[in-house]
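User: Hey, my collaborator sent me this sequence without any context and asked if I could get a structure. I don't really work with proteins. Can you help?
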Amino acid sequence: MAGTKSAKKQPATNSSAAVEAVFDAYPKPVRTKLLALRRLIFDTAKATEGVGALEETLKWGQPSYLTPQTRSGSTIRIDQVKLEPGQYAVYFHCQTNLVEAFRELYPELRYEGNRAILLSADDKVPEAALRHCVALALTYHLEKRKGTAK
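Assistant: No problem. I've predicted the 3D structure and written it out in structure-token form, which is a compact way to encode the shape of the chain:
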């Protein structure tokens, strides 16, 4: 299995300087939106019962948010969409049912398969919907433990 990406977990980079460098490298319109999304993720975590402190790190070179203390949630990653200038996304673990649940709740949002919500730097951020989706991701394992996950 050596050499296959799926055989190993991608190591996380814990340096806040490395995370800041990634944000600094984004084009300004996308950087502004991603920094607002970063604040939304931290604010949502703080306001959501059972989540605990978030860890911000890099996974696959993308700013990533984990719940290491409580293990309540599934990792959330944010990044620009490489081949679409002005586009950015919130990525979720593709082997969860999170994006499927989001599609049912928010059919007006744009999605990429079962792994991402797609957004445009030119559009208004659908803040209420994103807060709800982020809260669901940050409590995904809690809900599974309770047997109430969709």
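In plain terms: The beta strands are 55-59, 62-66, 76-80, 87-92, 110-112, 116-120. You can pass these tokens on to your collaborator as they are.
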